[in-house]
Amino acid sequence: IGITCGGVERATFLEAGVIFNDAGNDCNFRVESSSDANMLFVDGGENRVGIGTDSPAEKLEVQSASNTTIRIDNADDSTAKVLFHNTGSTDRQIAVNSGAMTFGGTSAEFARIDDDGRLLVGTTSTSSTNRVVVQGATSGSAGKLAIARNNNTPGSTDTISALTFATSLHE
Description:
Layout: E1 2-5, E2 8-14, E3 17-20, E4 29-31, E5 40-43, E6 48-51, E7 60-62, E8 80-84, E9 92-97, E10 100-104, E11 109-113, E12 119-121, E13 132-135, E14 144-147
Parallel strand pairs: 6-7
Antiparallel strand pairs: 1-2, 2-3, 4-5, 5-6, 8-9, 9-10, 10-11, 11-12, 12-13, 13-14
């Protein structure tokens, strides 16, 4: 069964499902909810999808009158992640697993915020010596920044770590 309006096919109902705008016309599609006239909006001419908006500025735009939140929920408590992919370049991802938020590629972790709120760069544990750990203050103690290297037995002239304040990244 097909639905046509103004000589333009709008929807086709098949045994396996429903196709909207199968001909690829410049036709928009909108779904209303009880309190949002644009709960879901597909802009057929601009190839964009809006949630809460009828004028999405990007491929996907989520808009709300207050506290816009996108929730990614993993029902079995394993990894929930957002993957950023560019064809021809390396993928990057942000993931949450076992209370830690990790940042990295699809097979390597570059940094994490562990379940105690510590920022770990180059390590997954505070017991490693090759790390930058920023640890927030707790009751009765000061926050600290630790910079270490992978050599536990430096020579007498070795620099173990350094903290440099610069006016640009090239200094």
